[in-house]
Specification:
Elements (H helix, E strand, L loop, with lengths): L2 H7 L2 H28 L14 H9 L2 H6 L7 E3 L4 E4 L2 H8 L28 H15 L7 H19 L10 E2 H18 L5 H4 L6 H17 L1 H7 L16 H18 L8 H7 L4 H15 L1 H16 L1 H17 L8 H4 L3 H13 L5 E6 L5 E3 L2 E3 L4 E5 H4 L3 H4 L16 H11 L13 H18 E5 L7 E4 L3 E4 L2 E6 L2
Parallel strand pairs: 2-7
Antiparallel strand pairs: 1-2, 3-11, 4-7, 5-6, 8-11, 9-10
Cofactor: heme
Organism: Truncatella angustata
Protein name: Cytochrome P450
Length: 503
Amino acid sequence: MTYIEFKNLLPSSIAGVAEVCAVLFFTWYIGTAAITWYRLRHIPGPFLASFSYLWIIKNNVLGRGAQEHESLRKYGSIVRTGPRYIVTDDPEILRRINGARSSYPRDAWYKAIRTEQHDNMGTIIDTARHDRLKAKLLHGYNGRDNVSIEAMVDLQVTHLVDVIKRRYVSTKGDPKSFDLSQVIRYFTLDVITRLSYGEPFGFLDAEGDLYNYTNSVDRLIMALSLATDLPMLRWIIFSPLLIGFLPKSTDDNGLGKVLGTAKNIVKERFEKENSESPDMIGAFMRHGITQPEAAAEGFLTILAGSDTTAVAIRSTLLYLMSTPTVYHRLKNEIREAIHSQPISTPITVEQARKLPYLQAVIHEGFRMRPPAVYGHYKVVPPEGDTLNGLHIPGGTAIGHNSIAMMRSQKIFGSDADSFRPERLLECSEEKKYEMERTIDLVFGFGRWMCAGKMVAQVELNKIYFELMRNFDFQLIYPAKAVDEMSYFVYVQKNMFVKITASV
């Protein structure tokens, strides 16, 4: 049916109104696109990004956020990625806009990661409110308020090693392969739930996807990434019409079930006025956090503190297994350390920090696969700003392009695309400081620095040492070592390995 035939079927009044509406919408769209293009016309970037969100949509639908953002290096240090979005791979710009005295507030980008419409430290946009809340919460994150972070991580590292020995180690007559990506994920979930609530939720012991949680999170990631990046979609998803379809604490499985379990633990703590527990929720309560705040913050630790660390661990282990020279050098350093000095089981953070190659591996792993690919946008103040000689209009959202920053040849050398921990050991102290300081930006900077940085560092200093101390690893499918999609974060699955006892 042609447009003319369709039009003739409608009453003349309706057809006329439809035509007017169509013309008005088309005019509005063209005008908006032109204005949008004009504001940031001097910022280079992909053509589609100059007037629409199509570049962002394409990357998310294809799961190619990392590859596409890394390719932006050809445009320079500041690149346009959407109508009002720009990203930068310049460490100094990121330190400036995220510093404690910066006047750049958070963008509404953060709002998409709220749970049941409750704000938490990760979603609050108001800077003063964020700072007040973070000051209270840090007592739980930094381990100084009766929260023994290292001791709790030790329990989970020991349990992981025991589980691998019992279930997954191959012997001559009993070869086995398993998906290491899931086991690592269960480990990080148990670590963060023990730290937050005093006891692990039991993902490792369940021998499967407890509550179907990880599967539900993976299915949500693309939608979540689109919602963070697309203001209109964010508004639609959180509208009264659709909000009831989002995960909620009354669900029987998935993300909602874990949210409900965490929420019930907090409720019981407050009903019993039990603020003495040596865990993060106990510390939050001791510093005046309310029950709704504690529930929201507790779940944030699970959502933000498990998968990001799991990506770092998986990726580093993958690079180790794929790079024999690095693998064997780290194994040798571990053997020599065990034979030459008293090393506890598990190794302490203090002992681990004295092993230079282990530290280089930790940093290089973060560099090659930063847990957050891009995003975490801040808003340029109303008066605008000048960055690297470019005027940035007020209201523009600027975020990090970590994947490009971590491949900077200027900072990391001509082989920046290669996994080579030696780069941190073969340079001057000044250069090493520059590289490590840049890599540390994966945790953010200034007032917006990740509160869980210390927790992640404790985990990483222990997990690589203990896994390499006890086991030898081999990829089952080296040509397709892992299934990986990337949005503003990575989703990794099917990393099958064979493990034998270390010799």
